[in-house]
Amino acid sequence: MENEKDMEAKRAEAIEELRAALAELKSGEGLMRFVGGHGIQSQVFEFEWNEPSLEISFRIPYGRVLSDEESQKEDNEEIGAAIRMAMLLLTVEGQRSKVEGQGARIEVSCDERGAAYAVYDADGELEDSGEDWTPLVKRFESYLGDSSAEPLSIIWP
């Protein structure tokens, strides 16, 4: 099993990759990181993270050139929100697991059907779940406090 320092380093590396992907997305030049699939209508933004207390699974349509401009814009906004959510989850994970205890788990997903999350306590009992990430973001505000050097804004389209 990996020690906490190794996990922190992996989280930090993933956050930097996500930050770079968000910059690519904002630039309008096209997303290069975390893009899977093939063809002009079947590319997806894919990001997976799995550790005992956190599971993230994103598979969101991207670059659907046959779709209208508004649909492409909505896809990009959804990907941007998912990237920010992943960065938030990875940022607070070390602090959260200390406060909520060993065994507490969060699962967050997003795909073409929509977004979802579930929060489990240390005993594996479901504490909270839903399709709107707003309560999940609010949950983490206390972990970030004023210590976050760069505030994260999660805007879900």
Task: Summarize the model shown.
The chain has about 160 residues and is an alpha+beta fold. About 45% of the residues lie in helices and about 25% in strands. It has a 6-stranded mixed beta sheet with strand order 1-2-3-4-5-6, with helices on one face.
Number of domains: 1
Radius of gyration: 16 Å
Number of helices: 3
Strand order of the largest sheet: 1-2-3-4-5-6
> What is the ordering of alpha helices and beta strands?
HEEEHEEEH
Task: Summarize the amount of helix as a percent range.
Answer: 40-55%
Structural class comes to alpha+beta
- Mind describing the biggest β-sheet? 6 strands, mixed
Note the beta-strand portion.
15-25%
Mean pLDDT: 84
Q: What global shape is seen?
A: globular
Question: What is the straight-line distance between the termini?
Answer: 38 Å
Give me the count of strands: 6
Q: pLDDT below 50 for ≥5 consecutive residues: which ranges?
A: none
